[in-house]
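$ run holo --ligand "D-glutamic acid" --emit tokens
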Amino acid sequence: MVNSAAIGIFDSGIGGLSVARAVRELLPNESLIYVADSGHAPYGEKTDDYIYQRMDHITRHLTAAGVKAIVVACNTATTAAIARLRAQYPLPIIGVEPGVKPAVLASKSGVVGVLATPRTLLTPAFATLAQRYAGQAKVILQPCPQLVPLIEALDFSGNKMQALLQSYIQPLLAQGADTLVLGCTHYNFVADLIAEIAGPDVSIIRTEMAVAKQLQQRLIQTQLLSSSAQAGADKFYSSGDLELFNRQLQQFWPDVVMAGLKWHE
Ligand code: DGL
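-- output --
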């Protein structure tokens, strides 16, 4: 493996672009290959086996393309099957999990709300995580099944989004939550809307920079960090509709991008 190779980053859709943005910011000299599996989103309503098949398919193609590391930029995929993926592929594989630990540390009321996909909240991996870090805090789980399709559709300004977010967040506030975990990478793109509803006394916990830092650590440990002095190149693929993907990229990728490419089905 050469340290000039790209880093592969994937998600069920565009949520992982928030993680890719953090990686781009922290590691400007790394090249990135991003895969949005939008043709198979949302993962949050699929079985663990289905999700694993998609993870395996994407990782197989990314490793064939020569990537040096993989970031599973999806809480659902990470909690469902990252252990299986790591057992199958020898390269560094970094995942993302809901930030229960930082949330419990930040909470003053001792009540923490976790917003995530239904699948994430049902996995044994999430149960273990919540048990390990909850301590004395009350951790309330809030599945948000309809949120990812709305975000994928770039439907942010309508009443639908407001009503949906209110319906997920108000019950958590009513139970005294002063800290909300964004346990799905898509939700980073509605973090401002969530913060507005929750008000200034509620902390919002995001994990994308922590994931980028963990990736940096692994690349240092494995001597795979890019030694290039030049800015890295980015490539973006989607298994979904490319016209929509290009609009999503224009909205959420900070730099000018090449047109999105079609991913292997
Ligand atoms: N972005 C994903 C996550 O972090 C999952 C979205 C989905 O349900 O497809 O959980």
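-- notes --
Residues 12 and 43 are 6 Å apart (CA to CA).
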